[in-house]
Design goal:
Number of strands: 0
Radius of gyration: 20 Å
Number of domains: 1
Helix content: over 70%
Structural class: mainly alpha
Number of helices: 9
């Protein structure tokens, strides 16, 4: 009983603020690193190629936050702790925020804000095409993440729209895998985690379909 009371207190008082701090922390850390580099306090704190380091950092952060978003429903169902679902939209918005920063960093630092060069990369490089497709699919999810949009669209329509998170997650992880020249640990781990989460979702969907069939028998 005491444990349940503590969980309820945490969910009501601390969960959202602590989640916000955790989601802001990667951006604050990146800002700190750039400050250290630009002030010559630690000029090589991000290595000899800070632009590439920033690209990778923002991209990896976006994918990890996206995977956390996808993991919230399984955690809720496995643990039975429903309040965790309250942070799902906030985490999803953070995933979009870091994905958008990832694109802006590439456009600004690598392509000098040239939309023409960005478009040429999208056409020529498969991994950039996949990444841009994932980002485009995230836009309607971010726009419709408010309670007001849920009421306007209706819950069923909103739920169908937000199923886009699954194909966009596949596109994002494929982008992550293809952008590296050799097999690396982090992209592979991201792919494995996504595969597990998708298998869980398919299994849950299959169980829901099976229950009405059993009831009919």
């Amino acid at each position: 009983m005491a444990g349940n009371a503590l969980l309820r207190t945490f969910a009501k008082t601390w969960m959202k603020p602590l989640t916000l701090v955790a989601l802001i922390a990667p951006f604050a850390y990146l800002a700190f690193l750039w400050t250290m580099m630009l002030t010559n306090t630690e000029p090589y704190i991000m290595g000899f190629n800070p632009v590439q380091w920033t690209h990778r950092y923002l991209g990896d952060t976006a994918i990890r936050v996206l995977l956390v978003t996808l993991a919230i429903s399984p955690i809720r169902d496995i643990t039975g702790w429903a309040p965790i679902a309250l942070i799902r939209r906030r985490v999803g918005l953070a995933a979009f925020f870091y994905a958008f920063l990832h694109m802006l960093a590439y456009l600004g630092l690598d392509r000098n804000w040239s939309l023409q060069l960005l478009w040429e990369d999208v056409v020529i490089r498969t991994y950039i095409m996949l990444g841009m497709a994932a980002l485009v699919l995230m836009i309607p999810l971010a726009i419709t993440s408010t309670n007001g949009m849920i009421r306007r669209l209706g819950r069923k329509t909103w739920d169908r729209l937000h199923w886009l998170i699954y194909p966009l997650a596949i596109l994002a992880v494929a982008h992550n895998l293809l952008m590296v020249k050799i097999v690396e640990g982090d992209p592979t781990i991201h792919a494995v985690i996504l595969a597990v989460l998708l298998l869980w979702r398919v299994g849950r969907w299959g169980m829901k379909r099976l229950k009405p069939a059993e009831a009919a028998v």
